[in-house]
Amino acid sequence: MSALRPAADVAPLRATWAGTLPTGRLNAEAAAAQSARVRCNLWLTTHMWEGPVERAAAVANHLVRNAVRHGSTGERRDVLLRLSITQPGSLLIEVSDSVPQFPAFDGTFRVSGGLRHSRQLGAALSWFPTPNGKTVQARFMAPAVQS
């Protein structure tokens, strides 16, 4: 895992989607995470991504849940989910929130934490600060590249 480096894809994008998830409700964490899972699953299936769709959807769920739980405080509570498929078929999941710090990213993950689960599901994780907070990235390599 790495910190402070956005993914540098040289491959052109085949498809991309971005949207703000619901965080203003009483049960915002669960609602946003479930919305991320459903949207990711549907979008990847629609675009015929050949990678592990269910695992990618689970990673989107974990990252959004973490962003709502730890990264959406104060007046700026928006959580942005962005999905991108590159020409070779790699998937980049990005979740942006309004808190620029990520103190434990390279250190210890809780035994049952979402970042740990995301790594176990096959995602390579990184993050970088943005002018309005930070973006956490999960990358799944193209199925042909993994073989």
The separation of the N and C termini measures: 21 Å
Specify the overall morphology: globular
Computed over alpha carbons, the radius of gyration is: 14 Å
Give the strand order of the largest sheet, numbering strands 1, 2, ... along the chain.
1-5-6-4-3-2
**Main beta sheet, described?**
6 strands, mixed
In short:
With 147 residues, the chain is of the alpha+beta class.
What labels would you give this structure?
147 residues; alpha+beta; 6-stranded mixed beta sheet; 6 strands; disordered N terminus
Describe the structure.
- There is one protein chain.
- With 147 residues, the chain is of the alpha+beta class.
- It is 33% helix and 28% strand.
- It has four helices and six strands; from the N terminus they run ββααββαββα.
- The protein has helices at residues 28-46, 53-70, 114-120, 143-146; strands spanning 2-3, 13-21, 79-86, 91-97, 124-130, 133-140.
- The chain has a six-stranded mixed beta sheet with strand order 1-5-6-4-3-2, with helices on one face.
- A hairpin with a 4-residue loop joins strand 3 and strand 4.
- Helix 1 (28-46) runs antiparallel to helix 2 and helix 2 runs antiparallel to helix 3.
- The chain is globular.
- It starts with a strand and ends with a helix.
Summarize the topology.
Blueprint: E1 2-3, E2 13-21, H1 28-46, H2 53-70, E3 79-86, E4 91-97, H3 114-120, E5 124-130, E6 133-140, H4 143-146
Parallel strand pairs: 1-5
Antiparallel strand pairs: 2-3, 3-4, 4-6, 5-6
